[in-house]
């Protein structure tokens, strides 16, 4: 059986490690790295007229004669590209490193099947699509883990929360934060950071409200009662907190999968929804809206302002502060202190802050997945071995949260108090 030349179209992304444009596509399992650097032949952000950031190139892959008797060999393939510039060269290298094995495997499967009399077209198509969906699911899980390790933050696209619900929730958030002070004060703050925080000396441009245990029955209703919310506002807040909670559970499952672990993550954990408003004025431009911190919990799913930037994250590799540009319709994920403990130091509890870039109100909504309510925070035992001794002793999440405040250690320094001494 002779397999003829095949024409393949491969896509490659700009690989500049730019947090500005780092996205994880939850639906299609693709990690898209978008560059904000101009690229020859492309627009300002490496995008084409249709706003696509992926670079496509047409290739010709020539495969030598393959028959059932030599289907197990590793033949040389020739790759010819129309674009033989630097992008073409990288595509070619990427194909030879990753794509070749895949293509040859498909060819082998085909050859073996044909030697046995052949599969029907439908069988082949069904098998292909099953394999593609399994492979892309686990590739996505691995990419999520890598993003947690390398940056501790990433943007999600195709996350399943509708743009309509996102923008309705933003509108409700803005209307809540525009309420008179005496009404906002009804959102109590028994513990720092859990309820309403008015503008104050320490945070002169920041004000925020909170729904503690937002996934517990009645929590959203109680919050809405405090503010005298309308049925519409109530419905939106309820739907959004549910949608984000479900997304968090999904992320937890994918992180487990990416780490090769079983069980469940985040089931029965405390969550908190926060509504944030930054009163940016001409006088505050250049000042800090939210001081440098890491998030205390495992992860935060953030709907940042769709227009006004200001969020900045610290690169784990270089220590540089990198602006995180708004990207409407996406959700930002920040990995927190508890994830660092859980992963035995593998995940990065990203340090971040919010700066005032321009004199316009900035609004954001954050779902914090905090920590287990009834059990201790501890490292997954599968991630501990003689080469990776356990870095932390088990502790209560609330105890840790209090220590972070009392020791004034907003960037995770209080974790040192729970360091194991076994190394
Ligand atoms: O408002 C933002 O974009 C970020 C808020 C934040 O850092 C946080 O809630 O931890």
Automatic annotation (TrEMBL):
Lipid biosynthesis listed as a keyword: no
MF (Gene Ontology): metal ion binding; oxidoreductase activity, acting on paired donors, with incorporation or reduction of molecular oxygen
Cited Pfam families: 2OG-FeII_Oxy, DIOX_N
UniProt keyword annotation of tRNA-binding present: no
Residue intervals of the Fe2OG dioxygenase domain: 267-371
Keywords of this entry: Iron, Metal-binding, Oxidoreductase
Source organism, top-level taxon: Eukaryota
Function (record text): 2-oxoglutarate-dependent dioxygenase essential for auxin catabolism and maintenance of auxin homeostasis in reproductive organs. Catalyzes the irreversible oxidation of indole-3-acetic acid (IAA) to the biologically inactive 2-oxoindole-3-acetic acid (OxIAA).
Alphabetized PANTHER family for the sequence: 2-OXOGLUTARATE (2OG) AND FE(II)-DEPENDENT OXYGENASE SUPERFAMILY PROTEIN-RELATED (PTHR47990)
UniProt family annotation: Belongs to the iron/ascorbate-dependent oxidoreductase family.
Protein name: 2-oxoglutarate-dependent dioxygenase DAO
Source organism (scientific name): Escallonia rubra
């Amino acid at each position: 059986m002779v397999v003829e030349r095949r024409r393949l179209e491969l896509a490659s992304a700009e690989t500049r490690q730019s947090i500005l444009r780092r996205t994880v596509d939850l639906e299609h399992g693709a990690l898209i790295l978008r560059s904000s650097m101009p690229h020859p032949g492309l627009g300002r952000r490496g995008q084409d007229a249709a706003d696509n950031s992926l670079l496509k190139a047409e290739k010709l892959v020539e495969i030598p004669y393959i028959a059932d008797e030599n289907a197990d060999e590793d033949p040389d393939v020739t790759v010819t590209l129309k674009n033989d510039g630097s992008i073409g060269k990288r595509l070619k290298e990427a194909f030879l490193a990753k794509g070749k094995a895949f293509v040859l495997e498909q060819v082998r499967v085909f050859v073996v099947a044909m030697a046995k009399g052949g599969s029907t077209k439908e069988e082949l198509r069904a098998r292909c699509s099953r394999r593609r969906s399994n492979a892309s699911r686990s590739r996505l899980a691995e990419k999520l883990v890598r993003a947690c390790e390398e940056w501790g933050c990433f943007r999600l696209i195709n996350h399943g929360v509708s743009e309509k619900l996102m923008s309705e929730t933003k509108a409700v958030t803005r209307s809540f934060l525009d309420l008179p002070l005496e009404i906002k004060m009804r959102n109590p703050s028994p513990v720092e950071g859990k309820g309403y925080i008015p503008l104050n000396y320490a945070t002169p441009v920041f004000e925020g409200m909170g729904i503690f245990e937002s996934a517990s029955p009645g929590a959203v209703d109680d919050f809405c009662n405090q503010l005298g919310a309308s049925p519409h506002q109530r419905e939106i807040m309820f739907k959004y907190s549910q949608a984000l909670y479900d997304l968090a559970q999904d992320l937890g499952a994918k992180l487990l999968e990416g780490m090769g672990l079983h069980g469940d993550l985040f089931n029965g954990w405390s969550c908190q929804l926060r509504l944030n408003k930054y009163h940016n004025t001409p006088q505050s431009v250049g000042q800090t809206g939210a001081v440098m911190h890491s998030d205390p919990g495992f992860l935060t799913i953030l709907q940042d302002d769709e227009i006004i930037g200001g969020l900045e994250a610290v690169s784990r590799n270089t220590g540089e502060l990198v602006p995180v540009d708004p990207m409407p319709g996406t959700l930002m994920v920040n990995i927190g202190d508890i994830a660092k403990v859980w992963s035995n130091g593998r995940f990065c509890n990203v340090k971040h802050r919010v700066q005032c870039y321009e004199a316009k109100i900035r609004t954001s909504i954050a779902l914090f997945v905090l920590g287990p309510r009834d059990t201790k925070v501890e490292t997954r035992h599968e991630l501990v071995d003689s080469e990776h001794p356990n870095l932390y002793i088990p502790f209560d999440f609330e105890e840790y949260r209090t220590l972070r405040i009392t020791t004034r250690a907003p960037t995770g320094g209080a974790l040192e108090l729970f360091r194991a001494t076994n190394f």
